[in-house]
Amino acid sequence: MRFGINTLDEFNLAGKTVLCRVDINQPVDRQTGKLKSINRIQACVPTVRELAEHGAKVVLLAHQGSDIEYKNFYTTAPHAEVLTELVGREVRFLDDVTGPAAREAIGALKNGEILLLDNVRFCAEEQTLFEMKLNLTHEQQAKTQVVTKLAPLADLYVCDAFAAAHRDQPTLCGFEQVLPSAMGRLFEQEFCVVSGVMESPDRPCVFVLGGAKVSDAFLMMETVLSKGAADTVLTGGLVANILLFAKGIHIGQASLDFIQKSNYGEFIEKSIPLLEKYGEKIVLPTDAAYLDSDGKRKESMIDSVPGEAGVLDIGSQTAANYADIIRAAKTVFVNGPMGVFEKPETEHGTKTVWNALAQTAAYTVLGGGDSITATEQYGLVDQMGYICTGGGALIRFLTGEELPVVKALRHAAKTFPADQPKE
Ligand code: ADP
Ligand code: MG
């Protein structure tokens, strides 16, 4: 038991039918249907392998979105091929989730065999619960089709989908109401890493917050500053633009238009008390980069950005300063790039900061889809301390919320006894 949740150590797995929910949702090429990355599939391999090697009959449940969130879904068939290769055992795919074919295949599994069912979001309840905010309680989720059809065939539910732990859906929170449940190894590891950063980081502990998800960044900033986890917050991206504007610094009309268009006005108001209270810990850019009329990169001090410009990156002086602070830190948490890193003209800030993350002796934790893409782009994946597969879940965890899946797993730990309980 860790964090009030059972681990795989607490269950005898041999001969058990285990429903294991993984998050192997990957970017998909819409033209070819091919997976563009396999990092999340790789991350769940230790759990899947452990279950199979200990003689469980393994049923994998997973979702796959598209690059247009919630508009289309893809089959999980390609994932089975990748899993087969990575696990080193056959992972059979079946194009069904709750129907007779799926139930028959589950019933016929032998010890050590692995079956991946099709995309659970093909089930209406899984999808609409998230999208339409039906707000079904966990008890009500236990009465959905997917749980009522599959749970009777299983002995144990394992959730290894930390990246989806903020989602309140039947395949994530429903099974814990009716089956003994445990977290998988990846879930356990990610939970441990992010709790460590929040509760007892080696100091100085630096948070680098950038990117475009301003509401998440502000929530995180408030939490990590008020709980004392952060000694310093380095800001970039839109997050920095908003804080700068709130301080009365003119950051160019194009930046302002963007802030207004995105309805970020409330964060300008929130910035003022935040800067008053934690001004010494929040570091703002001292210079900035924008594009001239020929699309060329130009830099200026932060208080002399030309009237019409839009700030698209932190400047070189800021980047060098952030790199120094990162190199002197003991723990660094990163979410969100420093600028529009997708374009060569405006990647300098992100690249400089990311190189410092690779060089520092500090323990570095990085999360967020675009932040991971930048890491891959610069070939620095192996040099980060920990890359968290969960973006949304990680952020919500750091804001201090109890994640729905964590709540459900804790409920199961209290409700159903483990085979060999361990403290
Ligand atoms: P992550 O996916 O790592 O959590 P976000 O999704 O919050 O990060 O932010 C990434 C996006 O922010 C990128 O597409 C990047 O182009 C954009 N971005 C960063 N800085 C700026 C800026 N100054 N102006 C506009 N967009 C920005
Ligand atoms: Mg993103």
In short:
The chain has 423 residues and is an alpha/beta fold. It has helices at residues 39-53, 77-87, 100-107, 124-131, 138-141, 145-150, 170-174, 185-199, 214-226, 237-246, 253-261, 265-278, 316-327, 348-359, 369-377, 392-398, 404-415, and strands at 17-21, 57-61, 91-94, 114-117, 156-159, 181-183, 205-209, 232-235, 282-283, 287-291, 297-301, 313-314, 331-335, 363-367, 386-387. It has two domains: 8-188 and 402-415, Rossmann fold (3-Layer(aba) Sandwich), CATH 3.40.50; 203-361, Rossmann fold, CATH 3.40.50.1260.
- Give the number of domains: 2
Helix content: 40-55%
Main pleated-sheet profile: 6 strands, parallel
What is the overall number of helices?
Answer: 17
Average pLDDT rating: 93
Computed Rg: 23 Å
CATH class of the largest domain: Alpha Beta
The number of strands is 15
- From the N-terminal CA to the C-terminal CA, the straight-line distance is 5 Å
**What's the architecture of the largest domain in CATH terms?**
3-Layer(aba) Sandwich
Unique bound compounds: adenosine-5'-diphosphate, magnesium ion
The CATH fourth-level homologous superfamily of the largest domain? Phosphoglycerate kinase, N-terminal domain
Tell me the overall shape: elongated
Give the strand content: 5-15%
Outline the low-pLDDT stretches.
none
Could you say which structural class the secondary elements and strand pairing correspond to? alpha/beta
Q: What is the topology, as strand order, of the major beta sheet?
A: 3-4-2-1-5-6
